[in-house]
Amino acid sequence: MPNHPFDSQLCPTRWLAPLGALLFSLFVAGTNAQPYTQISAGENHTCALLDSGGVHCWGDNFRGQLGNTTALVGDESGRAIRVLNISTAAQIAAGREHNCAALKNGTVRCWGYNFRGQLGDGSTAANAVPVQVVGISNAVAVAAGGDHSCALIAGGTIKCWGYNADGELGAGSTAFSSLSALDVVGITNAIAISAGMLHTCALLANNRVRCWGYNNFGALGDGTFVNRNAPVEISSFVATAIDAGWHHTCATYSGSVYCWGSNTNGLLGDTTTSARNLPVQSQGINAASQVAGGEIHTCARLTLGPGELRCWGNGGDGRLGNGETLNSLSPVRVLGYDNFIAVTAGRQHTCALIDGGSAKCWGRNTFGQLGNGEWGPTSAERAPLYTAPKCELDIDGDGAINAATDGVIATRVLAGLTGTNVTAGALGVDATRTTWAQIRLFLERACGVVGLKP
């Protein structure tokens, strides 16, 4: 019997053409992967907006955060999954365990956890498929917080829905929650919004900042620690960009970063750990174009060089990206890359877009929130790494393209084989995708192959 790496029942005339077709399709998919234009990190998951208007999410899916019913609840494979029923998104926002997208037609769709009505569909039922927010038809941006959501409406007004016990909705009351979108009082000229865990902020056309909601740590920046159910303006302060973290808020102006609120582990960047109810300047930054707040760490994108990143605060799991796990009271440089174009901070992880539209993530990876196809209770990365999806000919993930391994796997898949009939004797020594389940997920999610058997 001829000794060759392919199944004996498959003669060359049967496998060469389909194998070539599949490999070519994988090559095309990999080289023509759509770039990401925005990235947003939730508590333990991440979502990214595709240039086409589609959305990918990866990480924790216990509440349906990944937006795709083909992904099992609790699926934490760490592979990017395409969100269903969204192909024309203009902007996205990841909340604690839910997400929202503003579509190009002005409507808003949300998915994931909904116990407080944060999906805005009039119910409290979680939904793994995006549902349309009732009563909004002219949104230009969205924000997703702990259990509440907001939309910036064309013309400068804001509507919010969901949890409201601390005044997060800015509607002038502390009704426990609202299943429908409410008008934020007193704002008619907003140009940007951002939602923290229990508070919300808006940037106005005159560069003023107004915030509302939970204020026990000073995250509203009004000089008090009093919760507000309606927007309050930060006195004598202007900004060009804002971002609300868990219990702190940051803004940029003229290249500097200013933060206020909780200062656990030094996440305000003022070299102290004292909470601040007024803006303080983060030290050592004078060329910032964007800032992102996580739970207890903060990052900023600089215009230095092609686009450097600085992070500060809690360094656990390597979320500061400097190769260490130590806390830092002042900004440290993210290692490994200098062409960052945007940054986002989750609870214990950080992600960024780089030139060309790829994503890099670092920090805790317990739920696969880094998107690199790995996850586990001790999984973490201390420096940026490439995030899925990336379709490639290296099907077994051993770092090499080999006809005796990847070619065999492709041939067996084309023949309709499953399980160990696909992997037996066809894995490279350093293969990282070693089971049929892992290979099938890779082919489906990274390469778009359909119709594979379980």
Rg calc: 23 Å
The fourth-level CATH homologous superfamily of the largest domain is Regulator of chromosome condensation 1/beta-lactamase-inhibitor protein II
Q: What fold name stands as the CATH topology of the largest domain? A: Methylamine Dehydrogenase, Chain H
CATH hierarchy: architecture of the largest domain: 7 Propeller
Strand ordering within the main sheet: 1-2-3-4
Shape: globular
Unreliable runs: 1-21, 24-32
Short account of what is shown:
It is built from 4 helices and 28 strands.
Protein described:
The protein is mainly beta and 454 residues long. It folds into 2 domains: 12-31 and 393-446, no CATH class; 36-386, 7 Propeller (Methylamine Dehydrogenase, Chain H). 10% of the residues lie in helices and 35% in strands. The protein has 4 helices and 28 strands. The chain has helices spanning 12-31, 403-414, 420-423, 436-446, and strands spanning 36-41, 45-50, 55-59, 81-82, 89-94, 98-103, 108-112, 127-132, 139-144, 148-153, 158-163, 177-183, 190-195, 199-204, 209-213, 228-233, 241-244, 248-253, 256-261, 276-281, 288-293, 297-302, 309-313, 328-333, 340-345, 349-354, 359-364, 380-386. The strands form 7 sheets. It has a 4-stranded antiparallel beta sheet with strand order 1-2-3-4, with no helix packed on it. Strand 1 (36-41) and strand 2 (45-50) form a beta hairpin. The two termini are 31 Å apart. The relative contact order is 0.11. Residues 1-21 and 24-32 have low confidence and may be disordered.
Helix-strand blueprint:
Elements: H1 12-31, E1 36-41, E2 45-50, E3 55-59, E4 81-82, E5 89-94, E6 98-103, E7 108-112, E8 127-132, E9 139-144, E10 148-153, E11 158-163, E12 177-183, E13 190-195, E14 199-204, E15 209-213, E16 228-233, E17 241-244, E18 248-253, E19 256-261, E20 276-281, E21 288-293, E22 297-302, E23 309-313, E24 328-333, E25 340-345, E26 349-354, E27 359-364, E28 380-386, H2 403-414, H3 420-423, H4 436-446
Antiparallel strand pairs: 1-2, 2-3, 3-4, 5-6, 6-7, 7-8, 9-10, 10-11, 11-12, 13-14, 14-15, 15-16, 17-18, 18-19, 19-20, 21-22, 22-23, 23-24, 25-26, 26-27, 27-28
Helix pairs in contact: 1-2
